Amino acid sequence: MRHLLLALPFALLPLVAAQAHEAHEHGSLGAHEHGVGRLNAALDGQTLELELQSPAMNLVGFEHPASSDADKAKVASVHALLEKPLELFNLPKAAGCVVANQKLESPLFGDPAPEEADDDDDDHAPEAAATTPAAGAEHHHDHSEIHAHYQFTCATPAALKTLELGQVFKTFPATHKIQVQLISGSGQQGVDATPEAATLKF
Prior knowledge:
Distance between the termini: 23 Å
Strand order of the largest sheet: 3-4-2-1-6-7
Structural class: alpha+beta
Oligomer: single chain
Largest sheet: 6 strands, mixed
Shape: globular
Order of helices and strands: HHEEHHHEHHEEHEEE
């Protein structure tokens, strides 16, 4: 996939640096906060990309590896819900958006944590491989996240005047706030969406 959102971290470096500093100063505030998710949205021509990041607690109700049948069923149910982004994000039908690509990642889905995946690629650096994975694995056991990345092709992007997150809050009621970074032809904006204010304007 060619990610438009690859440019997003660079555009948001000052914000990310500020959040990292705040997280360092005040524990995990902003880094992994239960009840709070993050959404990056980028609209470029006919391509819309959405990247949802959330503590697993918000979506599944726990962050430990699913061992019981009940836990496994819950994880499978959430995975199935996340596989239907057109229902979840309620994109305007007039925009004619179809899913071009999607990717769901989480330790709960059996994926390695991002740091661990990076370390696996670093086999030529034995010191890093020897020291980092254990710490990374321990961290992600305590704080599991779910990342969902969607790419849509929209026949009539001009009809994408709003992004409605109400269904996300209804589907995952433990999510109380979503920190959104929105990039479109009209510029870049950061906004906090809540169940009471779930409609964003492009």
